[in-house]
Amino acid sequence: MKPIEPIQTGCPFCGTGCALSVECSGDSYKVKGDKTNPSTQGDLCFKPIQMAKALNDARITVPMYRKHKYEPFKPISWDEAIGIVAKNITSLPTEALYFYLSGQLLSEESYLFTKLIKGHLGTNNVDANSRLCMASAVVSHKMVFGSDGPVGNYRDIDDADVILISGSNPAWAHPVVFRRILARKKAHPQTLIITIDPIRTETAQKSDHWIGLHSGSDTTLYNALLAELYRRGKCDFEFIRRASQGFEKTLSEAMTLPYEEAIRLCGISSESAEILLDSLASEKKVVGFWCQGLNQATDGVMRNIGFINLFLSTGRLNAHKGCPISLTGQPNAMGGRETGYLSNALPGYRDVRNASHRTTCEHHWNLSPNHISPTPGMTINDAIDSILENKTKFLWVACTNPLITLPDVQKTQRALNHTDLFLVVQDCVMSQTASMANLILPTHSWGEKEGSMTNSERFIKRVRPFKQAPWGTKSDIEIICDVAKALGIAGFDYPDTASVFNEYKQLTSNRLCDQSTQDYDTLSYQWGGERLYSDEVFATASTKVQFHPIVSSSLSLGEKEFVLITGRTKKQWHTMTRTGLVGELLKDEEEPYLLMNGSEAQEMNIRQGDKIKISNALGSLELMVRFGDLAPKHLFSPFGYSSAPINTLVPAVHDPFSFQTAFKSAKVTLNKF
Ligand SMILES: Nc1nc2c(c(=O)[nH]1)N[C@H]1C(S)=C(S)[C@@H](COP(=O)(O)OP(=O)(O)OC[C@H]3O[C@@H](n4cnc5c(=O)[nH]c(N)nc54)[C@H](O)[C@@H]3O)O[C@H]1N2
Ligand SMILES: Nc1nc2c(c(=O)[nH]1)N[C@H]1C(S)=C(S)[C@@H](COP(=O)(O)OP(=O)(O)OC[C@H]3O[C@@H](n4cnc5c(=O)[nH]c(N)nc54)[C@H](O)[C@@H]3O)O[C@H]1N2
Ligand code: SF4
Ligand SMILES: [Mo]
Fold it and tell me: Which member of 76, 136, 392, 548 lies 3.0 to 4.6 Å from 295 by CB, making a disulfide possible if both were Cys?
């Protein structure tokens, strides 16, 4: 018998975006890395390998409906389900509708949602979970470079002299990126890995230097380093003069705090600061990575820009001296941003506030002029308030689990439970959010759907099905198109996914994220080439790269207060709706926990395994203590456990520019039982 050809696809988990090759035999799927893929070169981690065992587990296979949330669900037909969605959309005023999408949707799915909602329905009241994840990086890229889009690429790791990681734990969250870093270190032992993080994470443990700064003091550190590089004459003044604007005002703001005082406020030693200065002042290739430790903060945009300023001021935007690279969280948050799913965006990195951008999309979608609204829509956090104010009455959630992942769980719960809200949830399993819905639309999942995704280094690849979807489920694309057709909207009759991509890709023509010449069947393409702006022509109005002054801040805590950092575990994916079904991925991660500084805990008579109550004005939770190596007065707890959702204690406070939530700085007190 002829062996069955392996199927090339992509991983549904992190933004590293590994290309996979799946060998199928009957109901078993052997997941390997796709060695032919130039981006991730055949590497992968255990998550997709293990996940392949449980793809049929716990699936919902029939649409479920209840008029009122206090009633039990009853199964209904797809015709009825689609009819109910359409009826709600037509019977409510457009201002009462809201849509909440996900960086785990494929590009074709996000594009179709955008076309339906921003185009045909004429409302920008749509947002994605990237608001909680990448919004600060998006805004900082636009402010500095003139457009969204990470500048560097993974190949920069392979000849780096210094890898500078801040606010990111790639050993857990981007394991294949981290393995590539370790491989560079192995091949070239002089390579320095430096990690800036209040916690001595696995990444920090495997680094040459851990710089355990205090939570919230990144801006102070980056300003101090910039000012000191200037004082030592180590800035690249040629580059600054030639290619940038705004350096002087940025420097003058950076100089407001005396260097020693700034370093002290960060809680780090002057030796640690010297290590950073030495690397940045040298001619070495320094490649910088960051993620949620910088993005998820009330000054998230400032932290991003402060970090980038260090690279700009030392002329580091190129192959020989390095560059900063924003790590993307979800597998297709990049594609979602390209297709315009955030509340202010349109496809091809366009903006609803730009008249010519609107006209291009209206024309492409056969809409009359002025159909697309020029006003950015509400962010998801504003939409939650709007539900509570009885203004938003219809919420359609696709591929995300907001009950657990938005801040202030009790507030989200009140909103989702609101008697006047009709909640539609499109998911492949019964998530906590789905269990609160009026209508559940059961979807195909990874392994059953097709389309494309873009990873953290701008590399687009195809995702292909390798198994049959359970009978009774529909693909996300089918659902969107069926609703559009039920609403009587033309232009949603696609013979296949290729025709969706081919329609979308034209909207990227002559944009930074241009993929318009790519063929869907053979899609394997890094838009923008290896590195953006290698000609030093930037996407800003002046074509110069922009320095922006950033305000220094630092941690302040009351006497009894601790700062609570929340984040990920190594093997589970977010709210565990799927990875929680796999025993191997649950091992050591079965229970939520609170990580404490060991010596600090012992001073308080707290032992490992003790149950402890942590509280603030929003509520309280009981968690089991584990000891770790973190800065004093700092705690860590993972956020994905629905049995003790840590967002119960995280207030809905946001960055003023990106509106991204500050998930890493809730203040709490501790009580031992
Ligand atoms: N295993 C696994 N991998 C994942 C995911 C998952 O759920 N599970 N999710 C994916 C997604 S969507 C995302 S967004 C990424 C997130 O990837 P990461 O951002 O790497 O993960 P986090 O755990 O959110 O936080 C990163 C680090 O920021 C540090 N930090 C907190 N406060 C500060 C601060 O003030 N300054 C600095 N410098 N650092 C600080 C934390 O201590 C933490 O170690 O992971 C992706 N990969
Ligand atoms: N405290 C705290 N909170 C955080 C964070 C933090 O660091 N701390 N991080 C934030 C970040 S960065 C992120 S990205 C978010 C993530 O938050 P969410 O996106 O809400 O979390 P997930 O568990 O990934 O939810 C994805 C949902 O999609 C479903 N799903 C899977 N595949 C498919 C599919 O093919 N189609 C459809 N329709 N559904 C599918 C899953 O079953 C699951 O219910 O959490 C944010 N919240
Ligand atoms: S590193 Fe990320 S993209 Fe690669 S296999 Fe692991 S989870 Fe998937
Ligand atoms: Mo994320």
Answer: 136
Per-residue pLDDT tens over the stretch 64-74: 999 999 999 99
| Same-domain status, 298 and 390 | no
pLDDT the model gives residue 384: 98
What pLDDT is attached to residue 646?
Answer: 98
Give the model confidence (pLDDT) of 162-190 as tens digits.
999 999 999 999 999 999 999 999 999 99
pLDDT in tens, 335-366: 999 999 999 999 999 999 999 999 999 999 99
Asked if pLDDT for residue 434 goes beyond 70, the answer is yes
Are 216 and 264 in the same domain?
yes
For residue 44 and ligand 3, the question of a CB distance below 6 A is answered with yes
In order of 85, 324, 395, 482, 486, the CA distances from 80 in angstroms are 9, 50, 18, 11, 11
Statement to judge: residues 149 and 251 lie in one domain: yes
Q: Which domain holds residue 123?
A: 64-130+332-443+466-514
**Which amino acids bring their CB within 6 angstroms of ligand 1?**
14, 133, 166-169, 172-173, 196-199, 201, 215-216, 218, 291-293, 329-330, 565, 567-568, 570, 572-574, 664
Residue 41 lies in a domain: no
How many Å lie between the centroid of ligand 1 and the Cα of residue 571?
A: 13
In this structure, are 139 and 153 located in the same domain?
yes
Q: What is the CA radius of gyration of the chain?
A: 24
Predicted confidence (pLDDT) per residue in 278-296, tens digit = 999 999 999 999 999 999 9
Q: Please report, for the domain that includes residue 256, its CATH number.
A: 3.40.228.10
Instruction: Report the alpha-carbon distance of residue 328 to residue 150 in Å, rounded.
Output: 9
Buried b (16+ CB within 10 A) or exposed e, 4-42: eebbbbbbbbbbbbbbbbbebeeeebebebbeebebbbe
Angle between helices 107-114 and 476-486 (to 10 degrees): 20
Structure tokens at 144: 């500095």
Tokens 């993080």 locate to: 197
Q: Which CATH number goes with the domain that contains 611?
A: 2.40.40.20
Domain co-membership, 101 together with 147: no
User: From atom 10 of ligand 1, which residue's Cα is the shortest distance away?
Assistant: 329
pTM higher than the cut 0.90: yes
Is residue 206 domain-shared with residue 314, that is, in the same domain?
A: yes
Closest-CA residue, ligand 2 atom 45, reads: 405
Measured distance CA(413)–CA(5) in Å, rounded: 47
Residues 226 and 264 in one domain: yes
Q: Does 544 fall in a domain?
A: no
In a domain, 641, yes or no: yes
- Same domain membership, residue 229 and residue 122: no
The answer to whether position 470 is within a domain reads yes
Distance (Å, whole) CA 220 – CA 259: 9
**CA dihedral angle for residue 180, residue 186, residue 188, residue 190, rounded to 10 degrees:** 110
Number of domains the chain contains: 3
Answer whether residue 95 shows pLDDT above 80: yes
